[in-house]
Amino acid sequence: MLDNTELPLVLIGGTLCTARLWQPLVEQLALSSVMCISLTGSDSAPQAARRLLQNLPPRFLLAGFSLGAIVALQMAADAPERLAGLALISVNPLADAPENASSRREAVSTAHEQGLAEWLSANLWHKYVAPERLGDPALREIICQMAEESGHDTFASQTEIAITRRDNRVALAALSCPIIIINGAHDPICTPHHHQLASASAVRSRRITVHTAGHFAVLEAPDEIAPPLRQWIQESLNAT
Predict the structure, then answer these.
(1) DSSP-based three-state secondary structure for 208
(2) Are 14 and 65 in contact (CB under 8 A)?
C-alpha cells in the first residue's frame, strides 16, 4: 500500500457523478487516504474551486474526471502551491463556446421533465462509452444510478459550471508538480484532440490513451488506468 496519509488523494467527479464513479479504481489503488468529491452547490468553476480549497488540507494529490477535471484546472490556477500532483481524466481544457449555453440549459429542462435516467439513456449513453460497451447493462445502470442520486438541482448547477468555465491552459503550463492526462480513445465529448491540447500545454506531463474506453474511462477500464495512476502517485510523493 502506498502511504499517502499526509497527502490525500482528492478525486472530483464529473457531471451527474457520485463516489460510485471512483469505487473500482480506488479499490485497486489501495491508498490510505482518499476523498471522493461530488460537485454540488456551486454555479461556476471558480466558486467550486474556492469552496474546495477552503476545506481541503494544505497540500494534496488532485485528480478530476470530466467536469471535475475542469474544476481541478481552476484549482491549479488559483492555488498551484497546494497541488502535489495533478491527474486529468477525460478533460476538455478549453472554454465552452457561447452558442452552447442555450442548448445546455434546454437539456437541463428536458431532463427534469423526462427524468434524469431516462433522458441520459436516450441522449448521452451512446456518447459515454466505447462502442463495444453500449450493450453493458451493469455499466449503464451505474451511470444512470449516479444521475438519479445527483438530482436535478445538481445537474442545473453543474451545467452552469460547464457553460462558464475558463481556459486554464496557462495555469496548467505553469505547474511544476507531476501531471498525468488520461483519455479514452473513443471519447466524442472530451476528444483525443482536447487531450492533445492539454498535454501540449503541460510540457512536463505524461499522457495515457486507453484504447478500449470512451468518455467514462474510469468505469470502463479501471484495470488499465490504475497502474499509470499508481506510478503518478508515487512520482508525486517522491517529489514532495
Answers:
(1) strand
(2) yes
* Cα–Cα distance, 44 to 35 (Å, whole number): 21
Tell me the pairing of strands 9-12 and 60-65: parallel
Q: Is the pLDDT of residue 4 over 80?
A: no
Phi, psi for 5 (deg, rounded to 5): -55, -45
Joined together, the cell numbers standing for residue 49 give 474551486
CB atoms within 10 A of CB 66: 28
- 16, three cell numbers: 451527474
Answer yes or no: are the C-beta atoms of 101 and 163 closer than 8 Å.
yes
What CATH homologous superfamily does 9-95+166-239 map to? Alpha/Beta hydrolase fold, catalytic domain (3.40.50.1820)
pLDDT digit string, tens, across residues 42-73: 999 999 999 999 999 999 999 999 999 999 99
Q: Which long-range contacts (CB under 8 A, 24 or more apart) does 48-54 make?
A: 48/74, 48/161, 49/74, 49/75, 49/77, 49/78, 49/79, 50/78, 52/10, 52/12, 53/78, 53/79, 53/82
Q: What is the value of pTM for the model shown? A: 0.94
* DSSP class of 97: P
Over the stretch 82-137, which tens digit does the pLDDT of each residue have? 999 999 999 999 999 999 999 999 999 999 999 999 999 999 999 999 999 999 99
| Domain ranges, ordered by start, for the chain | 9-95+166-239
